[in-house]
Amino acid sequence: MKLGVLFSGGKDSGYAAYLAKKLGYKLGCLISLASMNKDSFMFHTPAINLVKKQAKLMGLPLIILETKGNKEEELLDLKQAIKEAVIKYKIKGIVTGAVASVYQATRIQKICDGLGLECFNPLWQKNQIELLEELLKNRFEIILSSVAAYPFDKNWVGKKIDLDFIKEMKKMQEKYKINPAGEGGEFESLVINCPLFKKRLEVKIKNIVGSGNAWRAEIENEQENN
Question: What is the pTM of this model?
Answer without folding.
Answer: 0.94
